[in-house]
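stage 2 :: seqdesign
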């Protein structure tokens, strides 16, 4: 295998998952504060470890089932996992899609307003136009953009962490052990992992090159760390400002103002804007792939006008919902859907899904697709 094939098989699924997971709250730090730092620095660190392990375990099983079934969109995958109950995932997924698009819009509006003094609605309109343009570019454009932007993101988050550690290292070290961990970190890690795993559909389209269980298991095991390392770096940077940063709408802005570099602040916000575009584009693209898969099963192609029409409709709804604000969207919207995704995806894939992997092949099982 050449290096490009190795990358696409083992690393691309993790980078695509990370690109969509980062969303509005991950990139701004709001999700990390809401789910982890609010429980205390040490508890938050334990919760992040739980999330990483769950992401890897669920990804390993999901990737192998998708390879076995040739299920590269979420409708086919959940038909294989849940049978007639597959539509339960779609209901929750569309709900999450609209909330995440709203978070993306709200975060973009806040970024351009606070960083450049522009109108909130200019930021909302700009990110929605960028998301729509990337969706129209199709699979290749999305994969290329996700890969390049992920490396840029890693470099920037590493720079942010090193700079914060150099400035606030003693505070970070002291705050990490200032409070006992307690037990709430286990639920924090499980709940954060549960609803974020709902964005696995965009990753399914990247699995077509996998030819063996070994390949899917390696790619799945790497997905958790690839997706969480930037979040861990950002979390550690925020620990130095605990507990005051817990109340910040955009924790990233707090850190950037403390560092005092206008150039770095602008660079960070430009990269963050790109991550918001990634998230919105990935989720909408997965929904369009589901529509395309349905028409393919019926022996017809999806009309060209459907993809842009679906994107415009979803973007419009997300923009409308964004009026409720970033903190309320993350605290209420995500919390409402968390239980649903744990019940209809995380638990079934780690129980029923593992059983389907271990049992002998049955005559009526879908064939493993040829590559």
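stage 2 :: out
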């Amino acid at each position: 295998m050449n290096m490009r094939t190795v990358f696409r098989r083992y690393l691309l699924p993790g980078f695509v998952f990370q690109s969509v997971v980062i969303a509005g709250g991950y990139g701004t730090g709001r999700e990390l504060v809401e789910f982890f730092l609010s429980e205390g620095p040490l508890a938050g660190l334990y919760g992040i470890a739980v999330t990483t392990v769950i992401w890897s375990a669920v990804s390993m099983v999901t990737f192998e089932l998708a390879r076995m079934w040739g299920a590269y969109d979420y409708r086919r995958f959940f038909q294989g996992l849940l049978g007639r109950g597959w539509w339960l995932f779609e209901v929750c997924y569309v709900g999450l899609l609209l909330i995440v698009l709203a978070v993306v819009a709200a975060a973009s509006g806040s970024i351009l307003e606070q960083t450049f003094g522009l109108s909130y609605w200019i930021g909302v309109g700009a990110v929605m136009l960028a998301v729509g343009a990337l969706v129209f570019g199709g699979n290749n454009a999305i994969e290329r953009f996700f890969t390049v932007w992920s490396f840029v993101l890693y470099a920037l988050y590493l720079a942010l962490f090193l700079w914060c550690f150099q400035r606030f290292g003693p505070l970070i070290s002291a705050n990490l052990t200032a409070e006992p961990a307690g037990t709430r970190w286990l639920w924090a890690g499980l709940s954060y992992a549960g609803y974020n795993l709902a964005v696995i559909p965009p990753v399914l389209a990247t699995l077509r090159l996998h030819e063996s269980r070994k390949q899917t298991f390696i790619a799945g095991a790497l997905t958790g760390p690839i997706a969480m390392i930037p979040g861990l770096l950002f979390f550690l940077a925020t620990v130095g400002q605990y507990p005051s940063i817990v109340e910040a709408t955009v924790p990233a802005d707090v850190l950037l103002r403390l560092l005092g570099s206008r150039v770095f602040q602008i660079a960070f916000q430009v990269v963050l804007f790109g991550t918001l575009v990634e998230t919105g584009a990935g989720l909408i693209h997965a929904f369009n792939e589901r529509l395309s898969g349905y028409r393919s099963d019926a022996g017809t192609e999806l009309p060209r006008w459907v993809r842009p029409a679906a994107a415009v409709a979803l973007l419009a709804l997300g923009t409308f919902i964004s009026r409720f604000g970033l903190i309320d969207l993350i605290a209420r919207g995500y919390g409402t859907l968390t239980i649903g995704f744990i019940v209809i995806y995380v638990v079934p894939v780690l129980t029923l899904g593992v059983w389907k992997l271990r049992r002998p092949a049955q005559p009526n099982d879908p064939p493993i697709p040829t590559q």
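stage 3 :: structure notes
- The chain has one domain: 11-358.
- The mean pLDDT is 83.
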